[in-house]
Amino acid sequence: MWSKEEIIDYLKDNLKESRYIHTMGVVQCAIKLAKLNNIDPKRAEIAALIHDAAKYMDIEKQKKIIKDHGYDIDEVMEESPQLLHGFTASILGKDMMGIEDEELLSSVRYHTTGKKIMTTLEKIIYIADYIEPNRNFPGVEDLRKITFDNLDEGVLQGLSNSIIYVVKNGNMIHPLSLEARNYLISQKNKSIL
């Protein structure tokens, strides 16, 4: 497996400076959330480091990599190819960087959409990407507070905010995001009963 330094060198060579700064913010946030939620911070750090590793890779190249590895590219991803980079980054993590931790790779794969029945690490990478310290949008401070008080509540609010944003912009909502949100609501309702 690549060392942390080798991964960072790859990121510096393949990301714009603003995206690299964002990535380091995600790392910082993911480590804090991991410690708070009894997850190995080193796993969260590696996942956060590679989550956007394919962000600027050519879309057609990403599609080829994804298809060559047996994944289908659904209608929503065809319409919104910016969603592909998580899948591509997880493949790069495994094939190029030698990462074998499947849960870690899954957290990278689904960091843009979420999915039904997310592990704690998957939730951490999803929401750390959203609330890292360099993010600045109305409500981010409230979302940070919610997340650090209760990870599930933060992820649920993040999914809800994202879905509203996508709808307002007239774009397609990925079914995985709806499944993730619905599942968290179902779990929340069961715990209330």
From TrEMBL:
It is an enzyme of class 3 (hydrolase). Its EC number is 3.6.1.41. Residues 19-134 form the HD domain. InterPro entries: Diverse_Catalytic_Enzymes (IPR051094), HD/PDEase_dom (IPR003607), HD_domain (IPR006674), YqeK (IPR005249). One of its GO terms (molecular function) is bis(5'-nucleosyl)-tetraphosphatase (symmetrical) activity. The keyword Phosphoprotein does not apply. It holds the Pfam family HD. It catalyses: P(1),P(4)-bis(5'-adenosyl) tetraphosphate + H2O = 2 ADP + 2 H(+). The keyword Glycoprotein does not apply. Keywords: Hydrolase, Iron, Metal-binding, Nucleotide-binding. This is bis(5'-nucleosyl)-tetraphosphatase (symmetrical). It comes from Inconstantimicrobium porci. The lineage of its organism: Bacteria, Bacillati, Bacillota, Clostridia, Eubacteriales.
